[in-house]
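Sorry, explain these tokens?

___
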Amino acid sequence: MSSAPIRILGVDPGLRNTGWGVIDCVGARISFVACGTIRSDGAASLAERLRQLHQGVAEVIIAHQPDEAAIEETFVNRDPQATLKLGQARGAAMLAPALAGLPVAEYAANLVKKTVVGAGHAEKQQIAMMVKVLLPRADARSADAADALAVAITHAQHRGARAREAMLLRGV
């Protein structure tokens, strides 16, 4: 008995570049669908850049029809302004799947790295290399797209446990 594939959108948010990746998941088997990068205009106002990111993610959802979405949590760095802007970009990116009625899961960067590479402090090149191993057809042309595919892979690996936790919380 085979179950229907679940299409997962992974998002690696950023104000300049937001990576996205779409995979199909059937049980433990994953396959590459598409990936890319949404770029905002650095000369535009913050509000306009956030609109561009939101619109870009919404267009990916329309084009690829995912069933679920996953996004990387904001990494807090030493620059509070940069962290705030990243959080705003993340919010704009999260809004698109939420408005489309998709469940949106959130994953810490260290969990994404540990799931895909096996180490919570992996470098971007290691992530890109392992994404290529796990998804040989993937054509991630940017680190942002590779990171987004890593987020989607993480969701594919953890979605069952998350569903069981949610059922327990609901008392089912």
